[in-house]
Design goal:
Layout (H helix, E strand, L loop, with lengths): L2 H23 L10 E16 L15 E16 L4 E11 L2 E13 L4 E14 L1 E14 L2 E12 L2 E8 L5 E3 L6 E9 L5 E11 L1 E2 L6 E12 L8 E16 L48 E9 L5 E3 L2 E13 L4 E3 L24 H4 L5 H5 L2 H11 L5 E5 L5 H4 L4 H15 L8 E5 L14 H8 L1 E6 L8 E11 L2 E9 L4 E7 L6 E5 L7 E4 L10 E2 L2 E6 L5 E5 L2 E6 L1 H6 L6 E7 L11 H15 L3 E8 L5 H19 L4 E8 L8 H7 L2 E7 L1
Parallel strand pairs: 17-30, 17-31, 19-20, 32-33
Antiparallel strand pairs: 1-2, 1-14, 2-3, 2-4, 3-6, 4-5, 4-9, 5-8, 6-7, 7-11, 8-10, 11-13, 12-13, 13-14, 15-16, 15-23, 17-22, 18-21, 19-21, 23-26, 24-25, 24-28, 27-30, 28-29, 31-34, 32-34
Length: 690
């Protein structure tokens, strides 16, 4: 929008105000010695004044952006305090959409798809911006006559960031850029977080009040304001946001004060009595006794909540925000080569994903990794092995059928063989693997069986009812590689310190992620000294704030006390990290499966994976080794077992900067199925490049 168009628009709006004011000036003067409050809404014509070639850290070949325009909105609340019949002071709180499109044109060589030759043509640079400010507007109001008012003041506003979308494009059909043979280039979008958060502007305006009732306590006021931007929107570049605001306000005023002064009614004269009045004594018995003072109610105690971030070494730092960063994750998910069966059954359970013969040609390992859930991938185990066997025609398989060793299954001597034959039939009939490449073996129980006691015995039996798959080619049973963009939370753990002062007995207390959010911890008569909490992504998906809320009910009075903390959630998308040339955008995870029940020794398969990880780990900035177990048995024993598993891997890896951690019993994967428990008996190696 150029200067001529801007002046023309302002002139038209002022003319409309002049026509409207002719009516209101003919009305009786409204009593201006009344307070006013109300709400306003407006259409905003944004007029940006840029003078730069590119946004900070965003590549662009524009010679210069010099103008920009757009349409937004403004809503707010107002209050006016009268000083005299002519002057009043006002203040407003306003939310304002100040978006605009910045345009510039340039001539360059383009390729004509019609002439099949380069020509000199114009193309357009365009940046679409979205920005919202919220501010206060102190101002002085002058009322020269009737309902006509003039306003002058300033706007102090806060702006968090600027969303932008940029592109260079050829408007005319039949032409493309020489460098990329496309009609567009430099298409980028993102967030400018480096902005001048405090925005200031000079504010000039006019309005006309029209009464909606006879006593003029409700008024409708068309308004026109012009904003002159003073602050630059971003540091190091010249870019101001001006605006024309055309809207309407609904105002409410005090009842009018009657004109003139109310006459005073004279009191009758006071005359002295002819005779002195006799003093009458009041009997002491008639004097009412003094009412004893009631004790002041005991003040309620104060409930407070403090939160700190906790790192892996248990060091505490003040919690200021929750940071969520996107990173490129490469996970090597272990492939569990056991197929489990129901009791006394040789049929494949329905939880396994089975294909028809006409479907196997379309299956790839990428099909199995469409879901990041490791159990979803595992349930494709026969399809993954089938695809790998087709790709490795010299590899052979051995299928070892096993039973749980109980009397119920021992009475069916061919059960173990039937289970192995079921797996072989699927691989030969669906995947067309030649039968001579698959051999069958049987055992009464697995070579390394699961053995548990007490109430967990049935779980061990379910794990021993299986077919074990081994191959002459390690690639057949190798881990599955999954690449994805994942979100990394920092900090991962928060510690809360609740305090009730003075201490009083409680009926109950509850700490939640938000007022109506998920419960973190709860208790009865006394508060815990401290409360541990692991941050999970599911708690943060639909909010821009993390607001832990603690409520406590007093036992004696049933009064409910509450304390709340608010922490901003910072989301850093991968695109922004790439623009900032960050190197800490990659993370690799290697799973070491599978430790047999109660074991921590590395087998040959584990050592092969460690050998594959060793070179990558030596180049990394941080290596974290975590040991896990299932939930069967004593928790203290499982923690020690997890540590032994992680230590065995660390010793074989031989990396000095590795951090060893025993996570112990894990519920990351459901423990309700045999495969779920096996996938929890693992050691994971996480490699981060910073």
């Amino acid at each position: 929008m150029n200067t001529t168009h801007t002046c023309t628009r302002i002139a038209i709006l002022l003319a409309l105000f002049a026509i409207l004011s002719a009516e209101t000036l003919a009305q009786p003067v409204i009593d201006n010695l009344r307070h006013r409050f109300g709400v306003s809404a407006a259409v905003v014509f944004n007029i940006h004044s840029p003078d730069f070639k590119q946004l900070p850290n965003v590549p662009n070949c524009c010679p210069q952006f010099e103008s920009g325009s757009g349409t937004g909105y403004a809503v707010g609340a107002l209050y006016e305090h009268p000083l005299t019949k002519l002057i009043s002071l006002g203040i407003r709180a306003t939310l304002m959409d100040q978006r605009a499109s910045l345009l510039a044109s340039e001539r360059t060589k383009m390729f004509s798809t019609i002439l099949n030759a380069p020509v000199d043509k114009s193309f357009e640079h365009r940046i679409d911006t979205r920005l919202t400010t919220i501010g206060i507007e102190p101002m002085m109001n002058i009322n020269p006559a009737g309902g006509l008012r003039f306003h002058a003041g300033m706007r102090l506003a806060y702006m968090s960031d600027i969303q932008y979308s940029q592109r260079e494009s050829i408007i005319e059909d039949g032409y493309v850029f020489l460098d990329n043979q496309l009609r567009t280039r430099n298409e980028l979008s993102g967030t400018l977080s480096a902005t001048n958060a405090l925005q200031t502007a000079v504010l000039l305006g006019a309005s006309i009040e029209f009464p909606l009732n006879r006593v003029r306590t409700v008024m409708l006021a068309p308004e026109l304001f012009y904003h002159i931007g003073v602050s630059n929107l971003a540091p190091d570049i010249s870019w101001r946001a001006n605006a024309i605001r055309l809207g309407i306000a609904l105002k409410f005023a005090d009842p009018p004060v009657p004109a003139g002064n109310t006459p005073l009614i004279p009191l009758p004269p006071v005359t002295a009595p002819d005779k002195p009045l006799a003093t009458v004594a009041t009997p002491a018995a008639t004097v009412p006794a003094a009412t004893p003072a009631q004790p002041a109610p005991e003040p309620l105690p104060v409930l407070t909540l403090r939160a700190v971030a906790v790192d892996e070494q248990d060091n505490e730092t003040p919690l200021r925000s929750i940071r969520i960063e996107e990173v490129i994750s490469t996970e090597h998910k272990p492939l569990l080569t056991y197929v489990f069966f129901d009791e006394r059954s040789s049929e494949l359970p329905p939880r396994y994903t089975l294909l028809r013969p006409d479907q196997h040609a379309f299956f790839t390992e990428r099909s199995a990794t469409a879901s990041p859930d490791v159990l979803d991938i595992y349930h494709h185990v026969l399809n993954i092995i089938g695809r790998r066997m087709l790709n490795a025609p010299l590899a052979t398989l051995t299928l070892t059928g096993c039973t749980d060793g109980t009397a119920s299954e021992s009475s069916a001597p061919q059960l173990a063989r039937r289970r192995a034959e079921t797996v072989k039939k699927y691989l030969t009939s669906v995947w067309r693997i030649p039968a001579q490449r698959i051999s069958v073996d049987v055992r009464a129980v697995p070579q390394n069986p699961s053995r548990s006691q007490g109430g967990d015995t049935l779980l061990s039996h379910a794990e021993n009812r299986r077919v074990e798959i081994t191959s002459t080619d390690d690639a057949i049973t190798a881990p599955v590689t999954v690449r994805d963009t994942v979100q990394n939370i920092s900090p991962k753990r928060v510690r809360f310190y609740p305090v009730l002062s003075p201490v009083r007995p409680l009926a109950s207390w509850d700490l939640r992620t938000a007022k109506d959010g998920e419960s973190i911890a709860r208790g009865g008569a006394t508060l815990g000294e401290r409360i541990e909490h692991d941050i999970r992504m599911t708690m943060l998906t639909n909010s821009n704030e993390f607001t832990p809320t603690l409520t406590a009910t007093l036992a004696s009075t049933d009064n409910v006390l509450s304390a709340e903390k608010r922490y901003r959630i910072e989301r850093i998308p991968l695109e922004q990290r790439l623009r900032e040339s960050r190197t800490d955008i990659a993370r690799e995870n290697y799973g070491l499966i599978i430790f047999d029940f109660g074991k921590s020794e590395l087998n040959a398969n584990h050592k092969r994976i460690v050998s594959m990880v060793r070179r990558r780990a030596a180049e990394a900035d941080a290596v974290r080794i975590e040991g896990f177990t299932d939930e069967i048995g004593d928790a203290q024993f499982n923690t020690q077992l997890a540590f032994e598993r992680a230590t065995a891997v660390a010793n074989d890896l031989g990396i000095e900067n590795a951090t060893v951690h025993a996570a112990g019993e894990s519920s990351r994967i459901s423990n309700t199925t045999p495969e779920g428990r096996f996938y929890n008996r693992t050691v994971s190696i996480t490699i981060e490049h910073k």
